[in-house]
Amino acid sequence: MELFKNTNIDFLGKKGIFIGASLVLTAVGLVSWIGKGGLKYGIDFTGGANIVARFSSKPPVDKIRSVISAKIPGELSVQEVAGENEVIIGTPIKGDVALQQETKVIRETLDATFGGGGGKLDLNNTSIQALTDKLRDPLQAASVALSEEQLRGLATAIMNFKNTPPRSGLLTSMDQLSAVQGVTPQVLGVIKEQCGLAQFAIRSAEVVGPKIGAELKNKAILATLYALGGMLIYLAFRFEFSYGLAAVIAVFHDVLITLGLFSLFDKEISLNVVAALLTLVGYSMNDTIVVFDRIRESLKNARKELNPQIVNDSINQTLSRTILTSGLTFISSLALLLFGGPVLNGFSFALVVGILVGTYSSIFVASPILILWHDSVQSRKKAAAAPAK
Hints:
The protein is built from 14 helices and six strands. By secondary structure, the protein is α+β, with helices and mostly antiparallel strands. It has two domains: about 10-40 and about 210-375, Multidrug efflux transporter AcrB transmembrane fold; about 50-205, no CATH class. The strands form two sheets. It has a four-stranded antiparallel beta sheet with strand order 2-3-1-6. The chain has a two-stranded parallel ribbon with strand order 4-5. Helix 5 packs across helix 6 (about 150-165), helix 8 packs antiparallel against helix 9 (about 240-265) and helix 9 (about 240-265) packs across helix 13. The longest helix is centred in the C-terminal third of the chain and has 32 residues, at about 270-300. The chain starts with 14 loop residues before the first helix and ends with a helix.
């Protein structure tokens, strides 16, 4: 399938405009980066504790901050997740033991403030084993004959039901459990007697020590640099050094602009984002290689030196493939950004931005750099040959 046939767009003729746009985008990102004192790193790299809590209604952020601050001195962040009844409670860098203790205090404080109370087992914040142990004797007393295997299966079914959408870890009424297989009216009556429902549920709890965070940060930087270095070596063997250099500069340009936009929009850099950046590096490089491969074929067929016309023709010939591939990937990434939720927001944002910038750089950055490098080499050769003549 070809979207564009026999196109003859002078891409290199407008290279000054597009390279200028790249410089502006890079400068804006760097100004934001420097102005904010660096990138905003997530808990993966800085260390700390992050607890994501889901509430049955709009979370009372001020109350949450107040009750937890009374227990834990120092800086504390309580961030509401847009479009969800969820908050992210974060504590800054501290020792590993202190982080574990603070995580426990946060859980206990939330339970004391928003828990079901009455000394009952909180069904929204319990485990399969705890629920199994809680129901064993009451069910026997109620003449509900269940083997140990059946009892554990019942507890597992209840937990699975609770954790599936649209509940997503939070039950608002015990009567919802009537939809679970094995929960008869008699069993439901026992559950209501023994269990309660808190107004919240802990969705996730991450604790990363400062040493581990720093180590992950260094490894993420090294992984990106190794990827770029490996691709430069591969392209130097597969094509020529000039091709590899142009492609690596273009990919570095993509990563730099993407990170600048992360700073501009105040988004966190997490391990998910690093994974997206490495994906972007591979994706952008693949796009550039397709164009460069066509340039090499055109040079063999025409038996000419590299020139702007051959580069323009090669870009035009691969334009349909580039737009189709990038367009489909962009649509998938955009859907992930819009509907993937807060956990995947950074990852999907990096992909959406990276695909746009990577496709743009394959055409308007890598190819002009290749021509500039080639012209520079030829000029030096002529200059060196002139005295000999």
